[in-house]
Amino acid sequence: MALDRDGSLTRLEALTAREAGLVACRRCLCVWPLGTERCGRCGARLVSRDPRALSRVWAWWVAGVMAYVPANTYPMLRMRTLLHSEEQTIIGGAIELFRLGSPGIALIILLASVGIPLAKFLCIAFLALSVRHGSRIRARTRMRMYEIVDYIGRWSMIDVFVVAILASLVQLGMVATINPGPAALAFALSVIFTMLSAQAFDPRLIWDGIETAVVREAAEAERA
């Protein structure tokens, strides 16, 4: 099966790796005969297609969404001085940075802590639904979407890194202290769960849907 330059589907007289009796390791990409249980190079478990992959994707996705809610409602940063104490959420801290004349830093924090996580949730949900129910969007586009989500997942931790750096640098004893709030742990868990959800998704399922559609179209054409 293949995609033409215009995005149309065609059937090629060529075997897929699974039809040829081969399976690739998703960790080191080494190819082994189908039925091999463990990769001889890295020791990872070899599975041609995991029927429970989408279930794990949704399980980690729901856990990530549940952790993301308190990450944005509880304080990310707690600052205490001799005169007063202050707590800041992610969005509140970005607004405060903007008010203090640092719009660039505020934009980066909003993008990394709000925009990217929400985009990841939407993209992972769309990919899982497109595999289950089909999609008009080309498989190549969906594959690129998956690669982007898998790559940028780790960069969403920037807010937690900022809090950790501030907490370690600004410790002035009785004068002022900065400590991470409960949202820091919730946000870190949300990022980790989202990364696990993306890693649980098997991108080969995207191409399986294309092959199934081509076979169905070919059968209908022959009957006609």
UniProtKB/TrEMBL annotation:
Any transmembrane segments, and where? 58-77, 105-131, 152-176, 182-201
UniProt keywords, alphabetically: Cell inner membrane, Cell membrane, Membrane, Transmembrane, Transmembrane helix
Q: What is this protein called?
A: Putative paraquat-inducible protein A
Q: Name one GO cellular component term.
A: plasma membrane
Q: Where in the cell is it found?
A: Cell inner membrane
A Pfam family matched in the record: PqiA
Which InterPro entries does the annotation name?
A: PqiA-like, PqiA-PqiB_transport
